Amino acid sequence: MTRNKGDKYRTTRDDKKLADDFVDHMRKFNTNTLSTAGEVQFVRKGSDADRAAAADAYRLYDRLGNLFNRGETLSGKIDGIKDYIFAAAVDPSNYLGLLSGGVGKATTLGVTTASKN
Known about the structure:
Strand content: under 5%
Largest sheet: none
Number of helices: 6
Structural class: mainly alpha
Shape: globular
Oligomer: single chain
Helix content: over 70%
């Protein structure tokens, strides 16, 4: 976390907050295209040590499993679902999909209507 998010994680004494922030970061990275792009830039521009630390972080996160098969508490599951929903809600690719889907639907409706006339 220190390499990517700054020195505040180097001196933290709160292991739970560090773990929660790590999992939140990884959930957003997995769900939000802007976060994914930022992570790609971090890895691409980082040192060999940065890339190795990122690879270790990805392996660690992968070993955690998903919300529903790792013995997560109900509040942990709710928190995880909330993280994924919020990350998706602010992802611009979802809005582009909605906009382009709306344009596609309107075009289809227009073509269908015109062909009936």
